[in-house]
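Hypothesis: this fold can be encoded by more than one sequence.
Test: take the structure tokens below, design a sequence, compare later.
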């Protein structure tokens, strides 16, 4: 099964953590919490079709990291690279951020942290969304 077909309808749908976990089960990708190196929040083990989440993540981090690692699964990344990390983060941004919710929150949020929290994503996911939408250009 092409995983991309299974998640195409997710773009901008802002799925909950529970919905992401359900999708992982449907795609036969196991998710588990595990001890990871100190600077890792998650990892995707392609040969085992398994996502590892670091212990102690906040709910927002869990959702954002799971979507990022699911991006690795969708793109079938078997190793790490800067391009792979960028693709996975953009995947998470596309899936987790609803453009209409973003537009509404932009009218009152005071800074990026407040905006990210309102959207239920990490600041990294918010930055990836901006990069995706703006194509690397900065907002005026």
């Amino acid at each position: 099964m092409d995983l991309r077909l299974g998640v195409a309808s997710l773009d901008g749908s802002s799925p909950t953590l529970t919905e992401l976990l359900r999708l992982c089960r449907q795609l036969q990708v196991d998710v588990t919490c595990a001890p990871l190196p100190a600077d890792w929040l998650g990892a995707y083990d392609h040969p085992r079709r398994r996502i590892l989440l670091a212990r102690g993540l906040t709910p927002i981090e869990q959702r954002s990291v799971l979507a990022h690692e699911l991006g690795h699964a969708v793109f079938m990344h078997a190793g790490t690279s800067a391009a792979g990390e960028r693709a996975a983060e953009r995947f998470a941004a596309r899936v987790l951020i609803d453009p209409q919710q973003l537009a509404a929150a932009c009218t009152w949020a005071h800074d990026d942290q407040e905006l990210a929290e309102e959207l239920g994503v990490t600041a990294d996911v918010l930055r990836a969304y901006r990069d995706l939408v703006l194509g690397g250009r900065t907002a005026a």
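Residues 3-134 form a domain with the Zincin-like fold (CATH 3.30.2010). The longest strand covers residues 30-34.
Hypothesis status: open.
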